[in-house]
Specification:
Layout lengths: L2 E4 L4 E4 L4 E2 H7 L24 E4 L10 H7 L6 E3 L4 E2 L3 E5 L22
Parallel strand pairs: 1-7
Antiparallel strand pairs: 1-2, 3-6, 4-5, 4-7
Length: about 120
């Protein structure tokens, strides 16, 4: 059985292959959400992106779902939505990771690079 280590919580949980990462966290009282997303979120339907996590090994998780790519795909393959990620092997997870380079690194804001500083 794979183990999932939640880095910020310093908690390791064993689970069957194919376990949903969001459900695993919730079942073990690991908070995926920061305020106010802990009160208002899509409840695992990949509509809000608030269950965003960073994983250490992309091969230890299921392939990204198309809904995920729209929300976190631009940040790189290690950023996933917990609600759409299944555990396949041992995995380290960082909950509520900081954005890789901030909101201006999103392709939508590429035009800003040409502005005079």
């Amino acid at each position: 059985m794979p183990t999932v280590h939640f880095v910020k919580q310093n908690q390791t949980v064993e689970c069957p292959v194919g376990t949903n990462l969001r459900q695993l966290a919730l079942d073990n009282e690991i908070d995926l959400y920061s305020f106010p997303a802990n009160l208002i979120n899509c409840r695992g339907r990949a509509m809000c992106g608030t269950c965003r996590v960073k994983i250490d090994d992309v091969r230890a998780a299921s392939a990204p779902h198309e809904d995920e790519l729209a929300k976190v795909g631009w940040e790189g393959p290690q950023y996933r939505l917990a609600c759409k990620t299944q555990v396949l092997a041992d995995l380290e997870v960082v909950t509520n990771p900081r954005k890789a380079q901030g909101w201006t690194s999103h392709p939508t804001y590429k035009w800003m690079e040409d502005l005079p500083h």
